[in-house]
Design brief:
The structure is a homodimer of 230-residue chains.
Chain A lengths: L7 E5 L4 H12 L3 E8 L6 H12 L4 E6 L33 H16 L3 E3 L15 H14 L1 H4 L5 E3 L7 H10 L24 H13 L12
Helix pairs in contact in A: 1-6, 6-7
Chain lengths: 230, 230
C-alpha cells in the first residue's frame, strides 16, 4: 500500500547508491522524509559525509546521524580494522557482514518513527545484486514489519507501521536507471567498504564491484570520480 | 528448551529487580553470562551503577554498558526531563514508554551474541505486574525470536537463537521469592524511574509501587534502604 502523501517517513540513509535511490523514491511519493544515518564505527566513514550531501540534495526535511558504538562489540571486517575486507568471490556470507546491523538500524528507525508520528519506514535493502547478507532478504523485512506492530504503542493501537524496501527485487542497473530518472546525483554517494582517507573507493571490494557492474549493465558512466575501472 | 550448560548467554541487565533475577536464573542454568546494559539517556541513571554491582555479585563473566543516544530522539518521560513521570493509575500505555526500547536492546544483544557465539539471550520482560508496555508481551518476544533467526548468519545457517524471558508469566512476589532462593541481593538493585541524586527511590512512580507491592505480597521486607512506605 502506498503511504499517504504529505505524511512523514523515516528513511535509513547510509550514503550509498541504494539508500540514496530509496530516499528519492520516498520523496517522489510526496513524503516528508526524515533521514537517519548511523555512526557505528564503520571504517568506511566517507559514507557519513555522503549521507549528509545526499539528504540535502534530495530535500530531506531532516537528517540525523546517531552514534551507535556497536562496532565495539566486534565481529565484522566493516568495523574492525584488524580484520581484512575480503576479496570478492569468497564463498558464504562475507566477513563484511555486521551482526544484526539492519535489525539494530530498523529498531532505531522504528523508535524515531513512533516519536515523529511517522508510520512508513524505508530501507534500501536489496536481495538481487548484493553481498548475501541475511538481513537484506524479503523474509527479514516482512518479519521486522510484524515485530514493529507488536513492539510499539502505535502498532498495538492500530496505527500500523509499514517497512518499505522498494529496491528489494531490483537489479543494480534498474536501481540506477530509476534513480537517474528521479534526479539522484550518484556523484554524491559513497559505496566502497574501505575508501582512502580522501574518500576514493578501493575498486576491489564487493561493494565497489557490484556498483561498477551496475553502471556497466545500465550502459552509464559512474559520475563518481574514481581511480579504478572494471 | 534449556540451553546447554557451560555455553554462553547474553543477559540484558538494567539493574532493576527483574533483570537481576533473570541473570540469577541464567547463572543457575550453568551459563557463562555476558551482561549488557545501556546508557540511553535515561533519567534514572542510578540503575547503571546498580547493574554493575549486580553483574559482579551474580558472577557475570563480563558486563558492558553500551551508550545508545536514543533519548536524543525524544518521546518518553524516561529520557526527556521536560516530560513529567506520570502518577500511577493514568490509563493506557504510560508516558514512561520508550518507543521501541526492547526492540533496540534485543537487536544489540543479538549482534553481540552472534559475535560471542552465544545463542541464548535473556530478557527480564514481565507481562503480569508491569507497566503495560507492548514490548513486554509474549507475542513480542516470540516475534523477536523469529526475526533473530532470519536476521543473522547463525540463524540462517541453523545455529538458532533462543530468546528467554523466564519472568514473563510470573507475578512480582513470585519473582522475588525465586530470586531470593537464588541468592539475589535486592539491596543492590534499582527500580525507580526518577530517583534522587543519591539514588533514593521516589516511592511514587509505577515502578516503585509495583516493587513495593511485590515485596508486600511476598511477605518480605525490601532490603533497599528507602524513604517511603506503601
Amino acid at each position: 500500500m502506498s503511504p499517504a502523501a504529505e505524511s512523514r517517513a523515516v528513511v535509513l540513509l547510509s550514503g550509498g547508491l541504494d539508500s540514496a535511490t530509496t530516499l528519492a523514491m520516498a520523496r517522489a511519493q510526496g513524503l516528508v522524509c526524515h533521514a537517519l544515518s548511523f555512526d557505528y564505527g564503520q571504517r568506511h566513514r566517507a559514507e557519513l559525509a555522503a549521507a549528509t550531501a545526499v539528504a540535502s540534495a534530495l530535500g530531506a526535511a531532516e537528517h540525523r546521524t546517531l552514534r551507535l558504538p556497536v562496532g565495539e562489540l566486534g565481529g565484522s571486517a566493516l568495523t574492525d580494522t584488524a580484520l581484512a575486507v575480503p576479496e570478492p568471490g569468497t564463498p558464504g556470507i562475507p566477513l563484511t557482514y555486521v551482526p544484526a546491523r539492519n535489525t539494530i538500524f530498523l529498531a532505531c528507525a522504528l523508535g524515531w518513527a513512533e516519536v515523529l508520528g511517522a508510520h512508513d519506514i524505508f530501507i534500501g535493502a536489496n536481495a538481487v545484486d548484493y553481498s548475501g547478507y541475511p538481513d537484506c532478504r524479503p523474509e527479514f523485512i516482512a518479519a521486522f514489519e510484524t515485530l514493529a506492530n507488536l513492539a510499539t504503542r502505535d502498532g498495538v493501537e492500530g496505527r500500523k507501521f509499514r517497512i518499505h524496501a522498494p529496491l528489494l527485487h531490483l537489479g543494480k542497473a534498474e536501481i540506477i536507471h530509476r534513480g537517474m530518472a528521479l534526479g539522484v546525483d550518484y556523484a554524491l554517494t559513497s559505496s566502497c567498504y574501505q575508501p582512502a582517507d580522501d574518500g576514493q573507493p578501493c575498486g576491489r571490494c564487493d561493494s565497489c564491484r557490484i556498483r561498477a557492474q551496475g553502471f556497466a549493465d545500465a550502459g552509464l558512466a559512474d559520475p563518481l570520480t574514481r581511480k579504478f575501472t572494471l
